[in-house]
Write a structure and sequence with these properties.
By secondary structure, the protein is mainly β. 2% of the residues lie in helices and 43% in strands. The two termini are 27 Å apart.
Length: 255
């Protein structure tokens, strides 16, 4: 498997026409190439934040996956192989015979990994949906389209790291790939509301205010307006029991 820059392709909307520049779904395309020669690396796609100080916070992405079998699409926070927070979907697990599809929520740690596989009431390839995890001390809460799905509490990381989105296949039993043709995962936006880990623990502990942000409610719709920090206070919810407003950064990608 090899991540290659040319497999990340921008396909923005053309003004207010509602049409994408290259046709198909508008957004940032992460492409897994296929077919490959036997023994050759599978050409895949990955985005990684330049910052390495992403800490407790709320991480969200609107993604449309593919149903072509043989790939894994993921949004995850990463420090190393034993400190990782994952949201993963496997394309081969989407079945036309079922109205639901599984999503994998995983915490990797030095001890046993915490791994839950709830069923989503839709097919991830049929539209954009917001996948999200809220990371606070001792807990990672997972959401889909603003609905709370599951909490994981075993092996929760307690150090800063990076946010990664990727679309990959390496021919192993996890992805059951490689795919037989090019496969595309499309990202409509990424939102990260987080405490920075670069200021030191003392600076973080000096703040106790909670950042309030608007939730996504339901599937992401075409041309949907994205609003940040504009709801009346009574309609907002905190992203964690303790958030550091002074040291929080918002990173947004909207195509």
């Amino acid at each position: 498997m090899e991540y290659e820059k040319q497999n990340v392709v921008a396909n923005p909307l053309q003004g207010s026409s509602g049409q994408s520049t290259n046709g198909g779904d508008p957004g940032l395309q992460l492409i897994v190439r296929g077919p490959t020669q036997e023994g050759a690396n599978v050409s895949t796609a990955e985005l990684v934040t330049k910052r390495r100080d992403l800490y407790h916070g709320s991480y969200r992405a609107a993604i449309k996956y593919s149903k072509e079998p043989g790939t894994c699409g993921a949004m995850f926070w990463y420090k190393n192989e034993t400190q990782e927070i994952d949201v993963e979907l496997l394309s081969y697990e989407e079945k036309s015979s079922s109205s639901t599809s599984p999503v994998h929520f995983v915490l990797h740690s030095e001890g046993p990994s915490d791994h839950e596989t709830p069923q989503l009431p839709f097919h991830p390839s049929e539209g954009f949906h917001e996948y999200r995890f809220d990371w606070s001390p001792g807990k990672v809460a997972y959401y889909v389209d603003g609905k709370h799905i599951k909490d994981l509490t075993k092996g929760v990381p307690e150090v800063p790291g990076s946010l990664i989105l990727n679309h990959w296949s390496n021919g192993n039993s996890w992805t059951q790939g490689p795919p037989t043709s090019d496969v595309t995962m499309t990202v409509a936006y990424v939102k990260a509301y987080f405490n920075t880990g670069s200021k030191g623990l003392k600076a973080r502990e000096e703040c106790s205010s909670v950042c309030l942000v608007q939730d996504q409610n339901g599937p992401v719709l075409p041309n949907q307006e994205t609003i940040f920090l504009t709801k009346p206070a009574a309609q907002r919810r905190p992203i964690a029991d303790k958030a550091v407003n002074r040291h929080m950064v918002i990173v947004v990608l909207i195509l």
